[in-house]
From TrEMBL:
The keyword 4Fe-4S does not apply. It is a multi-pass membrane protein. Keywords: Endoplasmic reticulum, Lipid biosynthesis, Lipid metabolism, Membrane, Transferase, Transmembrane, Transmembrane helix. It comes from the Eukaryota. It catalyses: sphinganine + octadecanoyl-CoA = N-(octadecanoyl)-sphinganine + CoA + H(+). The keyword Lipid biosynthesis applies. PANTHER family: CERAMIDE SYNTHASE 5, LONGEVITY ASSURANCE FACTOR 1 LAG1. This is TLC domain-containing protein.
């Protein structure tokens, strides 16, 4: 039974092009290295290291910067201890019928109970300083990994001629830079996936969960299938616009409104160019059309392209939300972050 499940999971007919076997990729010519999927297991301990580095960075770098910028942690008002209300708060928000029942049970006015829940919710909201530290960590990571990625891609031929992503596919050598790039990106997204449940609770929690899951699957599958050339461009394009988003959020938390507005404009433009122009018309076009023409489709090819299209749908949703923030900013005279921008 175990061997049957293993054979089904690692089916060569599903994962690899016709007439290609796992043995072909496990025995490259001398001096050549092909990706081995088990190498991605190193991403799990590395994800723990990334999360630990984040805690150190926030404490030793970001927090002192917040103090310099006079961003205070703040102490929220504490709700009056009440075991009955606390138990209900941890499970769900009360409806009108429950509020009336609680009013009779506690001999409290309904408005007093509503006020208790409002104060209790404010207790759980992270401080501006906490949000600043988190954004500074992400800004630093996105900037560093983007510089690393673009430095590697700039000197490659397939960045400028995407048809070369599929020449002699899947027998394309893996460079140490590509391996490191993939491993660090995968570790970072695993750390985001796990920390999302203990971090600042986002209004777009479900969208971000789908995004992280789709990204992790894409990175893992594209590594195992040696679609690393196209995969490297996908990661680089995504990191580019995130730099400006996190910078704009930091400026917003520090109350540098004009700087925040300017950075948000750069973010909106870079998001549109990277994720609604370059990603679909340059990268997805290459994976969908050029790979079909040169290497031909196979079963996993449909899965990988489906995940890319899921990401593109998320990009459209996010750009709609970004435009909503931009329109509000025009009427209010300033940018105010909300849904879709991680507030």
């Amino acid at each position: 039974m175990t061997s049957f499940i293993s054979a089904w999971i690692w089916s060569e007919r599903f994962w690899l092009p016709e007439n290609v076997t796992w043995a072909d990729l496990e025995h490259p010519p001398p001096g050549v290295e092909y990706p081995r999927l088990w190498n991605m297991l190193y991403a799990f301990p590395l994800a723990a290291v990334v999360y630990f580095l984040r805690l150190l960075f926030e404490r030793l770098v970001a927090k002192p910067c917040a103090h310099i910028l006079q961003i205070q942690a703040g102490v929220p008002r504490q709700a009056q201890p009440n075991a009955i209300l606390e138990r209900l708060y941890q499970s769900k928000s009360p409806d009108e019928r429950q509020l009336e029942g609680l009013s009779k049970q506690l001999d409290w006015d309904v408005r007093k109970i509503q006020r208790w829940f409002r104060v209790r919710r404010n207790q759980d909201r992270p401080s501006t300083q906490k949000k600043f530290c988190e954004s500074m960590w992400r800004f630093t990571f996105y900037l560093a990994i983007f510089i690393y990625g673009i430095n590697h891609l700039w000197s490659t031929s397939w960045m400028w001629d995407t048809r070369e992503c599929w020449q002699n596919y899947p027998f394309q050598p893996l460079s140490p830079e590509q391996h490191s790039y993939y491993l660090v990106e995968l570790a970072f997204y695993w750390s985001l996936m796990f920390s999302q449940f203990i971090d600042i609770k986002r209004k777009d929690f479900v969208i971000m969960l789908v995004h992280h899951l789709a990204t992790i699957l894409l990175i893992t599958f594209s590594y195992g299938n040696n679609m690393i050339r196209a995969g490297s461009m996908v990661m680089c394009v995504h990191d580019a616009s995130d730099i400006f988003l996190e910078a704009a959020k930091m400026a917003n938390y520090a109350k540098y409104q004009k700087l925040c507005d300017g950075l948000f404009v750069f973010f909106s433009i870079s998001f549109f160019i990277c994720r609604l122009v370059i990603f679909p018309f340059w990268i997805i076009h290459s994976v969908l059309v050029e790979s079909w023409e040169i290497a031909g489709p196979y079963r996993a090819w449909w899965l990988l392209n489906g995940l890319l299209l899921v990401l593109q749908c998320l990009h459209i949703i996010w750009f709609y939300l970004i435009m909503g923030i931009a329109i509000k900013a025009i009427f209010r005279g300033k940018v105010s972050f909300g849904i879709g921008c991680g507030n």
